[in-house]
C-alpha cells in the first residue's frame, strides 16, 4: 500500500509506462487522485487517442474520480502527476476540490515545448491567486519522471513539438 508522496509518484510513473511505454512521443503522462490515503482514480494522457485537447492525464483522472465517487468534488484530495500540470489541469483541480498537487518533473526538467514560453506562468498566477485553496509541491522523483519526456537539450523535430 503506497503511503508516501514518493510511493504514489512511483506508482503514477509505473502506470504511465505500463499504459503508454517510455517513448516521449507517446506522452506517457499519468495522474492519480488520492483521498485519505486511498486511490480514488487514475488516468493517463489520451489527447491523441480520443482526439480531445482536454484529455490530459489529470483531467482524465479527475473525471474518473467523479465517476468512481459519484460526486462532483473530491474534497481534500491529493493529485499526483508525473509532469507539472498545465494551467487547465491546475484550475480543474481547484474546481474538483483537490487541495494538494504533487508533481514529478517540472518545467526546468523537460523540453520547453511542454510549457507556455511567455513571462507569465499560469502556475505562478494560480499559486498566487489561489494559495489558500491549493498547495503545490514539485520535484518528487523529478529525474525519474523527466526521463519519460523530451529533455531541455533534446533536439525535438518541429512536427513532434505538440504541447498536449
Ligand atoms: Zn494539463
Automatic annotation (TrEMBL):
One of its GO terms (molecular function) is catalytic activity. Pfam families: dCMP_cyt_deam_1 (PF00383). Residues 3-128 form the CMP/dCMP-type deaminase domain. InterPro entries: CMP_dCMP_dom, Cytidine_deaminase-like. SUPFAM superfamilies: Cytidine deaminase-like. PANTHER family: CYTOSINE DEAMINASE FAMILY MEMBER, RIBOFLAVIN BIOSYNTHESIS PROTEIN PYRD, CHLOROPLASTIC. This is Nucleoside deaminase.
Amino acid at each position: 500500500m503506497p503511503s508516501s508522496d514518493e510511493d504514489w509518484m512511483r506508482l503514477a510513473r509505473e502506470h504511465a509506462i505500463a499504459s503508454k511505454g517510455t517513448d516521449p512521443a507517446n506522452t506517457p503522462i499519468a495522474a492519480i487522485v488520492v483521498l485519505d490515503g486511498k486511490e480514488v482514480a487514475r488516468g493517463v494522457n489520451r489527447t491523441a487517442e480520443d482526439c480531445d485537447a482536454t484529455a490530459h492525464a489529470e483531467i482524465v483522472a479527475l473525471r474518473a474520480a467523479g465517476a468512481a465517487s459519484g460526486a462532483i468534488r473530491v474534497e481534500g484530495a491529493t493529485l499526483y502527476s508525473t509532469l507539472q500540470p498545465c494551467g487547465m489541469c491546475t484550475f480543474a483541480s481547484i474546481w474538483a476540490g483537490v487541495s494538494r498537487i504533487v508533481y514529478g518533473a517540472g518545467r526546468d526538467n523537460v523540453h520547453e515545448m511542454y510549457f507556455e514560453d511567455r513571462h507569465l506562468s499560469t502556475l505562478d498566477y494560480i499559486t498566487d491567486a489561489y494559495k489558500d485553496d491549493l498547495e503545490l509541491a514539485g520535484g518528487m522523483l523529478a529525474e525519474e519522471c523527466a526521463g519519460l519526456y523530451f529533455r531541455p537539450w533534446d533536439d525535438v523535430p518541429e512536427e513532434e513539438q505538440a504541447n498536449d
